[in-house]
Amino acid sequence: MTQPSIETPAPTSPSSEPAAPQALAPAAAAPVVASPDDKPTRPDWLPEQFWDGEGGAIKGADLKTHLDELAAFKAGEDSKRAAAPEKPEGYELKLPDGLDFGDGVTFELDDKDPMFAFGRAVAHDLGLDQSGFEKLVGSYAKMQVEQAKADQAVFKQQFEQLGPKAADRQKAVETWVNAKLGPDAAVLFGGITKFKAGIETLERVMRLASGGGAPNFTQTGRDGGHAGPTEEEYAAMSPAEKLVAARKAASGGR
Hints:
By secondary structure, the chain is mainly α. The protein has helices spanning 60-83, 114-126, 130-162, 166-181, 183-189, 196-209, 231-236, 239-250, and strands at 51-52, 57-58.
């Protein structure tokens, strides 16, 4: 019987190297399509006025101009602060040169006015120089002058309502207050004698003091018997006659 033949593969030599794998061809890169959303956005620190939204870029020229202006302003403020006095008392109390209130009006500065002490403290806190302080003083003076003009207009209107003898009536009540109550009271009542109601009120007081319009009682409580002038008679008196009537009432009618 014939034996089948079996062929065995020849052994691989240890020195033989494996075949290198075949290199893969790189895949074709996908085309990049720009999207409107990819445009640069404004940085958070940059104000909107310095950002070009259309071009997606900083407005360099505008930003530089702004920074230059800030630098110049700071330098000016530093210069003013350096020129400020060391203490509030170092400011000289004076009006700005050329300040004109109009109508020939002048304003007298009073260093005792507490507003100027306050103004010095404010100016020093703000680091103002002498010129800056003078502007504060000028603003205050203007305000005072305008208020005085408004007051004068009111007083004039009040006098017109008192009639042609307004000045005489005012003088009479002021003289009476000074004679009967003293200079301090005259200063106290000086404000109300600028108004129609104030003068009329003091005139009533004068009539009552002279016995007019009310009984004149003595310390015993009985009528002293002195009859003062009526309201119509008192209104017709001259300032001197009113003073005589007031003195007569004070002396018990003698």
